Amino acid sequence: MAKIRRKISLKNSKVTIGALLIYFGIGVLFLLIIGQFTKLMIFQTIDDEDLIARGEDKYAVSSINEPERGEILDREGNILAADMEAYRIAIITDENYPNHVSNPEETAALLSEVVDMDKAEIQKKIEENIKKGRFQMELGQAGRNISYNDKKFLEESEATGIVFESETRRFYPNGQFASHLIGFAELNDELGGLNGQLGFERIYNDLLKGEPGSVDYSQDVWGYIVPNSDNVKPPVNGNDVKLTIDPNIQLYLEDTLNDMDDHFEPEELIAVVADAKTGEILASGQRPSFNPETREGFGNSWLNMLYEYSFEPGSTFKVFGLAAAIEEGAYDPDTVYTSGSMDVMDSTIYDWETEGWGDITYNEGMQYSSNVLMMILQDKVGADKMLQYYKDFGFGQTTGSEFPTEVTGQMAWDNELQQKTTSFGQTSTVTPIQLIQGMTALLNEGEMKKPYVVDEITDDSGEVVYDGKEETVRQVISKDAAEKTMAEMNTLIDGSLDHNPQYKSDEYEVTGKSGTAQIYDPETGGYLDGDYQFFTSFLGYAPKEDPEVIVYYGIKLASENKSETWDNGVARGFNPLMERTLKYLEVSEADVSGDQSVVEIGDYRGREIDALTDELNDTIDVKIVGNGTEITEHFPQDDTLLPYDSLFVKTDGDPTLPDFKGLSKREALMLADFIGINITVEGEGYVDGQSQNAGTAVTEDTAVEITLSSNDPND
C-alpha cells in the first residue's frame, strides 16, 4: 500500500502574532473584570470603600429634631425661665449677591438701634468685609438673641443685606430675680443647643434639656422619598422644675436688697425667707447679683451665697449654744454672773461692751448678747458635748440641699481659744442655709427641718418625677428645751432691757438674734480693725408665739452710712421684708396692741352703707360696688376679718366699679369674681392702677386691666 504524504502550508493563514497578542490582552482584561466583579459580589468594596455605606450616604437623609428645654417655675406656676424664639443677624457684604449691603452707614445706623454696638464700630466691620471680598459677616454675641419685634423693625426698614437665622434663646421675664438660684443657660455651639451655665439651669441641665429626636429616610436619584424608608424618633422635651420661691415675697426681698445696696454700697448683701414650719425657701437673693436676661452684672459674684458662702456669723450663733445649755440644765435665766471679760489661754476676751454691765442675770446677758455668758455656758455643758450639739444642729456639714456645690463651713475646735470664740460666733464658719436649718429646730419643738427649694420636677407628660416635701432631719433637743429656748429668744427684742428696739414692729411681734462679726483679713491673718468693718446680720422670726416665717438678713462692709450698720443693724432691710411677707401671707397677728383685733362680720344686708362704714374698725378696707345706699350683698358674711383685710359690698344702685387700689393680687381676683367681671393682672404685689376709674358703670362686657407694684400702699 502506497503512503501518501501531505504538506501543510501556512502561506495562506490570516492569524498573525499581533492578533494573538490582542486576543491574549482581551482575555486578561476579561479575567480581571470577572475577578473584580467576584470581589465586589463577595466583599462589596472597591479600594477598601464600603459601597453599601457609600450608597446609604448618598441617598440616606437624616435630620435632628431638637427638644424644648424645660421651664423653671415659681411655686404659683409662673415662668422664671423658658425657651423663646429669637434670631441671629447675618450681613451680606458680597456685591455680586442681589441682597447685599448697599449703604454701610445706613445699615450700621439701623443695626445700632437693635444691637449693643456703636454705629461706627458696625460700619467699620461692614466696610472691612466688603474690602476683603467676603460673602457675609456676623456681629458675634451682640447679633444674637434678636427679638421678633427688633427683627420686624429691621425688615420694615430700607436697609439691605440683613438676613436672619432663627434660633432658640432662654427667656428670663423677671430680670434680676433670685438670679443665683435660677442661674442661666445659653447656646453652646460645641455641645449643641441651650446648656445651663449657673444655678439650677446648670444643676438640672440634663433634666431640663431633654433628648433630641430624629427623622431618617432614603431618597432615590431624583430626590423622592423611597416608600416605607422613613424612621421618625420624636424628641423628648425637657422636664419642668418648679421651685418653692414665692413671686411676691421674692419681689419684696429684691426691693429691700436694692434699697440696702443703694444706701450702704456694701461689699455683700444676703437675704433669705423660709417657712418656719416646713423649711421651704420662699425667697433668696444677694448683692452683687446679675440680670440673667441681659447679663448685666454677671461676673461680679459667682457664688450662690445661700449655699456656697461660709463666714463667721457673730452673735446669731449664740442661740444654738443657748439651746444646748438649756437642754443640759446649765441655763437658769435668773442666775447671776459677772460680765465684762474672761481670760482664755494667753488672751483676754471681752464683751462688746468691754467693761461689761456688772453683775447681771443670764437672761440679761442674753439680751445684752454677752460673750462672757456664752463662754460660761460652754464650760458648764463641756466642750466635747457642746461640739456635738453644734454638729447635731447641722454645722460643719452640708444640709443635703439641691445644690451639689454646697459648702460645709468649718467648726474650729483645735484648742480652748477656738472653742471659746466659737461660742459667740467667731473663728468657726457657717452658711446661711445652715442657720435657717438650725433655727427650724428651735421653732418646731426640737425637730430640725431640712430646707428645700425644689417643689417638684415633672416630665413632658406631666408626671411628677421628683416631689419635694417637708422632711425632719433629726430631733436635736427635747420639746421642753425648745420651748424654753424660744421663751428666752422672745425676750431678745422688746425685752426688759429694750435692747435692739429697731427690730420692733408696730403690727407683729418679731424677735430674733442680731449679730456683729469681725471679718477675717487674709493679708494679716487677723481681723480687719477699721471703723465699722463688720458683717452685721439678724436671724429673726415672727410671730414669736407661733412662728410662720424665718428671715435672715446680712450685710458686709458698708462703704456709705457705715455707722447705721452699728446703730441699727440690718433693720432697714429686715423690717419691711418681714412685715410685707407676713401681710402677704395673711398671718393672723396684725397689730397685737389690742385696739386692732379681729373684726366680727355679721349679716349686713338691708342696712345703710354709711352706718356700716362708721361702725366697722377703720383698718377694714370696704370696697363698694354700686351707687346706692342700701346693702344688698357682701363678702364675707357671718365671718371674721383681720386688720387690713377687705370687705366687698354691693348696694341697691346701678353697679359701678370700686377702687381696687391697695388690694393684693389674690384679693383683686376675689373682688372681680364678686362683681362678675373679667380682669387681667400685670405685675406682682399690690394694686396701684386700673384701666377704668372707680365709679365707672359695670356692664356684662366690662373688662378691667389691673397693674400691681411691689410697694404696699398700707405702708
SSE topology:
Blueprint: H1 17-43, E1 45-46, E2 49-50, H2 51-59, E3 60-65, E4 72-73, E5 79-92, H3 104-112, H4 119-131, E6 136-138, H5 148-156, E7 162-171, H6 179-182, E8 184-187, E9 194-198, H7 199-203, H8 205-209, E10 213-218, E11 231-233, E12 240-243, H9 247-264, E13 268-275, E14 281-287, H10 305-308, H11 318-327, E15 336-338, E16 341-344, E17 347-350, E18 359-361, H12 362-368, H13 371-381, H14 383-392, H15 416-423, H16 432-443, E19 447-449, E20 454-458, E21 464-467, E22 472-475, H17 479-489, E23 511-518, E24 520-521, E25 526-527, E26 534-542, E27 549-556, H18 562-567, H19 571-584, E28 599-601, H20 609-615, E29 621-625, E30 631-635, E31 639-641, E32 646-651, H21 665-675, E33 678-682, E34 686-690, E35 703-709
Helix pairs in contact: 3-4, 9-19, 11-13, 11-17
Provide the CATH superfamily of the largest domain.
Answer: DD-peptidase/beta-lactamase superfamily
Number of helices: 21
The number of E-state strands comes to: 35
Helicity range of the residues?
25-40%
Task: Return the CATH class of the largest domain.
Answer: Alpha Beta
Low-confidence stretches: 1-13, 590-596, 711-715
* Strand portion: 15-25%
Oligomer category: single chain
So, CATH architecture of the largest domain? 3-Layer(aba) Sandwich
User: For the terminal residues, how far apart are their CA atoms?
Assistant: 153 Å
CATH topology description of the largest domain: Beta-lactamase
Main sheet summary: 7 strands, mixed
What integer value in Å does the Rg equal?
A: 38 Å
What's the number of domains?
3
Mean pLDDT, nearest integer?
A: 87
Shape: globular
Structural class assignment: alpha+beta
